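Q: Sequence in, structure out?
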Amino acid sequence: MLARALATILATAALVMVGSSSPAAAAGGENCWYETDPNTGEVKLVCEDETTDPGTDPTGDGSSTCTYAGNEIPCTGPEGSVWSSKYKCWVGARGPDDMVPPPGQTAEDGWWHVCYFPPPGSSWEYMWIETGEVGIDPVVLAQRAIASMDLDPISIGIVPESGANRAGLVGLPVWMWVDRPTDDTFGPITASASEGSVSVSATASVSSIVWDMGDGNRVTCTGKGTPYADHFGKQASSTCGHRYAKMSSDQPDGAYQVTATSHWVVEWTGGGQSGTIEFDLTTDPLPIRIGEAQVLTQ
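A: Exactly. Output:
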């Protein structure tokens, strides 16, 4: 599967900080080419990178994204370069051997590498990269660790129960909870991923669950909730509950469609860095029918 990684590079003389042509052009990379925007006249370097490892993305679709200035960008840039959170660029090929280290540095301390910078003001230049810091970005390994956890939405526990012959009553308490929680539905769960000398460990936990009750109301619960038991009677849940104000007869199929969205927080560390990744997982809708008590008079 081909995942297209777009890196906008202005192909002008002012763009080239060192050298007379871009590394992509000099190397004649067959997976990179220049395109001219017909509206702005801007020349863009477009690279196509073959990606087959589904473990690089928590969603498992075979792609990976990193974050820069609050925006998602490809973790892989031109000519197979790799995004570096530390240097804020895609770190690519090593520069020529006849380049001179900066004052106070030697070839053992590091070397000049091509750095492609993201928009705005896209450009590339040679940047001094310390030894051992050329390689995969730890964020990518954190995403791989998350993917290996195989996380799932929760299993909904709710009273009144869902079913054609089940119904609750207007005004009575509704109880919601995480049914049979496991490491991969609620956490905490820890996994690691490594490549070369870089290793990352990540721990994921659900911080909250937003229950969409289907009647226009959402209830946020910070824990697993309390499973209902008969001895609770008509008490309201002390941890996660709701009350419906009207019957569900006017809803599609005569039922409110309840979903639960778990908010996952992943703390990761490794490769000299640490960070937090957050995302949501939502259940399929569960139909809950609500009726009204009938009072008989004579």
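The radius of gyration is 27 Å.
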